[in-house]
Amino acid sequence: MHDGTIRDLAFMEGPESGGAILISAGAGDCNIYTTDCQRGQGLHALSGHTGHILALYTWSGWMIASGSQDKTVRFWDLRVPSCVRVVGTTFHGTGSAVASVAVDPSGRLLATGQEDSSCMLYDIRGGRMVQSYHPHSSDVRSVRFSPGAHYLLTGSYDMKIKVTDLQGDLTKQLPIMVVGEHKDKVIQCRWHTQDLSFLSSSADRTVTLWTYNG
């Protein structure tokens, strides 16, 4: 299995076993490993990234998105199982390591958080970048869509938590609001599954519950 630091984990219902599948990835061999949780058996080793994998996201029951220090996002289909698309971050300049990934509930839009303080919005079905913008002044370590995908929540090493309003034209300048701040780096942010409250964790050793009023 892994021969380096595990950087992210995710669970999903497996298309093969019908039970829970553990997805894990990180440093070392830069592979993504899938494990059948009921039987405790490894299923697949997904290879392709050439840098440490920093982030995982699962959706649709069989799809995985992975972000890596190799400056790419890869989409994996567990029904195959293999990589079905590679999305680069070098649309402008030299690109950047991808520290966080998320897909909206419809499965149409990918969001990335990158180490150069940028976020990218990518049209999955159209196969094109919609926009790249800089909501923060340091690494963006967490990106998550709100339950209705009206907002994108981002957390950064600049200690701030921000919300980007996605309800307008995504190709235009997007409204961004600071909705929280910690005393040290923000590590993760997660929306509530049904409303606009969210949790954040930080290197300041706190976890905070916030409410966003829109």
TrEMBL record:
<feature type="repeat" description="WD">
    <location>
        <begin position="91"/>
        <end position="132"/>
    </location>
</feature>
<dbReference type="InterPro" id="IPR001680">
    <property type="entry name" value="WD40_rpt"/>
</dbReference>
<dbReference type="Pfam" id="PF00400">
    <property type="entry name" value="WD40"/>
</dbReference>
<keyword id="KW-0853">WD repeat</keyword>
<keyword id="KW-0677">Repeat</keyword>
<dbReference type="InterPro" id="IPR040067">
    <property type="entry name" value="WDR47"/>
</dbReference>
<dbReference type="InterPro" id="IPR015943">
    <property type="entry name" value="WD40/YVTN_repeat-like_dom_sf"/>
</dbReference>
<feature type="repeat" description="WD">
    <location>
        <begin position="133"/>
        <end position="167"/>
    </location>
</feature>
<dbReference type="InterPro" id="IPR036322">
    <property type="entry name" value="WD40_repeat_dom_sf"/>
</dbReference>
<dbReference type="InterPro" id="IPR020472">
    <property type="entry name" value="WD40_PAC1"/>
</dbReference>
<feature type="repeat" description="WD">
    <location>
        <begin position="46"/>
        <end position="86"/>
    </location>
</feature>
<dbReference type="InterPro" id="IPR019775">
    <property type="entry name" value="WD40_repeat_CS"/>
</dbReference>
<protein>
    <recommendedName>
        <fullName>WD repeat domain 47</fullName>
    </recommendedName>
</protein>
<feature type="repeat" description="WD">
    <location>
        <begin position="179"/>
        <end position="214"/>
    </location>
</feature>
